[in-house]
Amino acid sequence: MRSHARLLKLGLDAHPVAATRLLQSYAARPSTDSLHSARRLFDQVPSKDALLWTAMLAAYAHSGHPTDALRLLSQMHRLHRFRGGPAPNHYTYASAARAAGSAADPHMAAALHTQVIKSGFESNVVVGTSVLDMYSKCGDITSAREVFDEMTVRNVVTWNSMIAGYTTEDMGGSALDLFHEMKCVKFEEPDEFTITSVLTACAATGDLASGRQIHSYSVKGGFREDLAILNSLANMYFRCGEVEWAERAMEERESDLLSKLVMIKGYAFNGRYLELMRGISGSNFVEIVLRDPSLSVSVLAACANLSLVRTGRQVHSLIVTLGCYQNCCHMHFDGVAIGSALIDMYCRFSSVGDARNVFESLVEKGTAHWNAFIAGCLKNHLLEEACQLFNKMPERNVISWTAMITGHVQHGLPLEGLRLLANMYGENCSTTQGNQFTFVAALNACGCLAALDLGKQIHGQVLRVLAAPEVDNSIFVETALLCMYSKSGNLNYARKIFDMMRKRNVVAWSSMITSFAVHGMGLEALEVFEEMLKLNFEPNEVTFVAVLNACSHCGLVEKGLDYFKLMKEKYGIVPRGDHYTCMIDMLGRAGKLAEAWSYAEKINDAETSYNKETAFNIGRYGDIWDALLGSCSLHSNVEIGRKVACKILEGKPKASDAYVAISNMYADAKMWDDVYKFRERWWCNDVVKRVPGLSHIQITAAS
């Protein structure tokens, strides 16, 4: 440095005051070269005072060399004790505490704290605050609180350090309690750093009520224009799911790059991908990615969810150009996430070949990359390729096994899924344990097979897992248990599971209603639905499918019509094909075939309005046409039966069931000429024979 060279020329490099100032400048711009220069300068000073020792110690601390800093403190102690050198002062201990905190070594921290107490500086507010912060950074929040409680004098920095320590350790409740305690202390008004910390605590805990109170407090306290607080407010509202409030907090403000990052991350957290892309389009995307490479993962996810194929490819090219893989590693971000996000994006685009190219181009393939590609193959119905990848995996984790179990169940191979579950526990009994999602997949497989005994075994394992206090997704497993018992024919157990659920959502209510409905217990299903409404749960379109199905099985036509009207008028749900299917089945069973036919004609319009890109597919609703045809046969309605049969044969010219049903209807009506014509058409169209139905049950093996 020029100042160092000037001191050398003037012969002042050995002067303690000048050397101290120079060491402080080195500490302000830490680097390996400047640290070596600082140490040489320190060693050249023959008469070192406490300020010079402290400046050198601070230089080590700022440069990321905590061990050297504390070694220097020990050397200073020895010189003071045996040679009468300068004693460490409160600034020395404060710098040493910052060094020990950066090392995150609890033993080192405890040793330094002991030295502070022996030296009599524990009552100094600067030293006490530094020791408190040191313990917090070491993860010893209990010792930090003990130091805080023992301090007779505190300042706002002390309170902020303790609150920040709680926030860092995900103890948001304790941070908020301390904040409220701070507000009651005279002469210790919270500042912008306090507000920022407690807002971060609210964001981490999802405490919207406290967040709103702190928002109000910040406005009354004159922090309305503080950009750091505004960013923290927006982040808090985003984390609590209040996107509109987050936008309101940032509107009409001069936003910098950090503010844009907060907004983009918030949109990503809430799955608001359209707003995310709008935020990106009005900004310098290169600058954003270089500042925070992790955002490229959010942008790729947005492209995947919005089917922005061209934009996704452009982002991929930019990532390669900017070298985000290296940047991510340099900035302590998991670079594996970008590779996984690229694979997932291309698989969502149904571009499995591009996903494979990304996968093959990876120099080091982590387990996350393998999992992403396997999941992508399963989404694209490439079960065989997914199996090949799974067999080649060098190391599997619970995500790998769960993906394969789920994939087999979704592809109609529940037995293979259960075999995979057995293999997972057989090969990895000591290393891999199932999680909630594994159990959901396994229970779904048991439900498909009506394997009640095996389902009970998995239930026992679920009880052990759900007993863990950290498990907070139990509602999904409990709903899967409910469905498994229902599909296995044990409605009593299904109802017990439902009654014991700690929390219920609309999916759980809908599952219970569906369970009763499909077992012909329509009245019980409707009782559950009425209970749901009384508890102010809002039903969705799936709930109403179950309710209408229950009305159909009970023959409650008027009740079904009322619920159909309620669905449209009160809850604003636009009827889809599934709803019309239930109405047709209900009216057909009751012999109201003309009304049933009118609803049947509405299915096409309902599906087209729901998805304009997908034309009505007769195959999707083939079962209801068959059911309506059966109702026509039961009630001897040849006129509507002919129209239904023609509708079926338009989509499936070789549907043998339709030929048989209409032929029998003509025969019952003594319309022999029509019988002959239909049977001749049957043979001319080379209609295949009817496929016999199959069913299976679990039988306890004889011992």
From TrEMBL:
The keyword Ligase does not apply. NCBIfam families: PPR. It comes from the Eukaryota. GO terms for molecular function: RNA binding. InterPro entries: E_motif, PPR_At4g14850-like_plant, PPR_rpt, TPR-like_helical_dom_sf. It comes from Anthurium amnicola. One of its GO terms (biological process) is RNA modification. PPR repeats lie at residues 49-79, 155-189, 366-400, 505-539, 540-570. Keywords: Repeat. The gene is PCMP-H40_1. This is Pentatricopeptide repeat-containing protein At1g11290.
